[in-house]
Amino acid sequence: MLSRRRSLGLLAAALTATPIARAAQERTARLKVVASFSILADLVRNVGGDRVAVDALVGPDGDAHVYEPSPADSRRVADAGLIVVNGLGFEGWLDRLVAAAAARAPVLVASAGVTPRADDEAAMRLDAAPDPHAWQSVANVKRYVANIRDALARIDPAGAGAYAAAAAAYLTRLDALDRAIKDAVAKIPSVRRRVITAHQAFGYFADAYGIAFVAPQDMSADAEPSARAVARVITQIRTQHIPAVFLENVVDPRLIAAIARETGARIGGTLYSDALTGPDGPAPTYVDLMRHNLRTLVAALAP
Amino acid sequence: MLYSNLIAPFAEFEFMRRALAGILALAFGAGPVGVFLMLRRMSLMGDAMSHAILPGAAVGFLLAGLNLFALTAGGLVAGLAVAALAGLVARTTELKEDAALAAFFLVSLALGVTIVSVRGSNIDLLHFLFGSVLALDDRTLVLIAAISSLSLVVLALIWRPLVLECVDPGFLRSVSRAGAPAHMAFLALVVLNLVGAFHALGTLLAVGLMMLPAAVARFWARDASAMILIAMGTGVASGIVGLLLSFHAGLPAGPAVILTAGLLYAGSVVFGRVGGLARRLAPRRHLEA
């Protein structure tokens, strides 16, 4: 009995001395930032560099709209030095989490200062909830980056210079991205700048870059599509001369193929809206995500 | 008016024509098979087999995505294996064949849903469970049509032993050895038709176009050939009406077709000429000598 207890003690001692434990100690020296979802985490990482340790509550490929926080999340929030959220009603679950975890850290609303646009769906319901997907316009994300830079500098004044330099470099990249999107869209004939999609996240992209995202009538991921829904989409594509369909998130690929066959519209690839992909996916960072969507749209819309 | 409601949906939209062609082919192939399943008191077997197809098709999906050949091959292998296994378990253990089938089909359904969910999204899972009758491409249509043609030919070949076995299996065994091979061929046809129907209607509804028309036919005819014709007609009518319902009322297409067949069944239960409720409750006077 005694010997077993002693060996357990030895094991515990050995564990605390392992590299894992040491890495954990180093991490505590860095500023802990918790971001609500993967895209924000990527922005914080680009500004904070090595001085911050960033954690996303909703990781790559996760859906932040319907997220259920876990007990581990509430611990991460409690330990954080800064909490970064998108705002605009995107993370309805976060206020409760912050309150429940008794977090002491300040909460930065990254979208502060962005001009919100009305949510298309909400506008129909006559309540004025804003569309939260502001990061789909690069100009807005530049605002996010400035907000993150200022918040980091306030909490960690010693790093202010490093944050300013990193943010400046990243903003230059964002400017190049913004120009690349505008140039690519300019090459698409204006009559072809429209797609049909059930994604509801591209309002800011549409406003900023002039590609219309037409929602299919009568079709959602919640239900089996009826013949009426398919007929309506086909009629819609024919009458509005929509050159490409992006319905990958609501109907199965064979039905998309059937719609494309019947209308002559091109089948678009996958558009990423609310979450990054894992490191092996096509959109591991925000810049990659926007470039991937741009490539996909151009491939579908180029004459 | 009549044209715009009944003909225009098919004239205007290719996907409607394709869906109709697929369901007509299924009605011609699966209807007769269903009649024999019913006559041999194996109706639940069809249900069990259609679930048994799911894990096989799911493995095909896991390996090759939504590939027609992979799904078909996987479904065929799994269906035939379960048919054989259920027979084996029934013969070698105390368990009756229906209980063995029930066990297999529950396990198959759970296994299939699990495998699909490992790789696919909810959309994929829905596609497996309810099919995509609105998205039949050329190759799927050819496959379904080939299966029904083959079914009709094989049924014609094994017609005599099949009918005899329904009526008097003991007599068949005493006069001929064709019983066992005919039974095997028939089971293979059941699996084939279910795999074809799986592409259009999914694993939960595939058996609908097989058993419901057969059950309807049972209420209107006494001999096998008449039942088969009625079953085919019921399948065709369900397809046309169900697709039109889906088009005008916005109902999901596969379930609409099966629901229509279900309504025809309900009507037959009440008004059927052979053993319908109305006939039983208000019999015509017997001729008196």
General description of the model:
The complex is a heterodimer of chains A (303) and B (289). Chain A is α/β, with parallel strands linked by helices. Chain A has helices at residues 2-16, 19-29, 38-48, 71-79, 94-100, 120-124, 138-155, 160-187, 203-209, 227-239, 253-263, 286-301; strands at 31-37, 52-58, 82-85, 107-109, 194-197, 212-214, 244-246, 266-267. In chain A, strands 2-1-3-4 form a 4-stranded parallel β-sheet, with helices on both faces. In chain A, strands 6-5-7-8 form a 4-stranded parallel β-sheet, sandwiched between helices. In chain A, helix 9 (203-209) links the parallel strand 5 (194-197) and strand 6 (212-214). The longest helix of chain A is centred in the middle third of the chain and has 28 residues, at 160-187. The mean pLDDT of chain B is 87. Chain B is globular, with a radius of gyration of 20 Å. In chain B, helix 2 packs across helix 10 (179-205), helix 3 packs parallel to helix 5 (97-119) and helix 3 crosses helix 10 (179-205). Chain B has 289 residues and is mostly helical. The N and C termini of chain B lie far apart (55 Å). Chain B has helices at 2-12, 14-39, 43-64, 68-92, 97-119, 122-130, 138-157, 159-167, 169-175, 179-205, 208-218, 224-249, 253-271, 277-281. The longest helix of chain B is centred in the middle third of the chain and has 27 residues, at 179-205. Chain B is built from 14 helices and no strands. Chain A binds chain B through residues 218, 221, 223-231, 234, 249-255, 257-259, 261-262, and chain B through 9, 12-16, 18-19, 66, 122-124, 126-127, 130, 132, 134-137, 243, 246-256.
Give the SSE layout:
The complex is a heterodimer of chains A (303) and B (289).
Chain A (H helix, E strand, L loop, with lengths): L1 H15 L2 H11 L1 E7 H11 L3 E7 L12 H9 L2 E4 L8 H7 L6 E3 L10 H5 L13 H18 L4 H28 L6 E4 L5 H7 L2 E3 L12 H13 L4 E3 L6 H11 L2 E2 L18 H16 L2
Parallel strand pairs in A: 1-2, 1-3, 3-4, 5-6, 5-7, 7-8
Helix pairs in contact in A: 3-7, 7-8, 8-12
Chain B lengths: L1 H11 L1 H26 L3 H22 L3 H25 L4 H23 L2 H9 L7 H20 L1 H9 L1 H7 L3 H27 L2 H11 L5 H26 L3 H19 L5 H5 L8
Helix pairs in contact in B: 1-2, 2-7, 2-10, 2-11, 2-12, 3-4, 3-5, 3-10, 4-5, 4-10, 6-10, 7-10, 8-9, 11-12, 11-13, 12-13
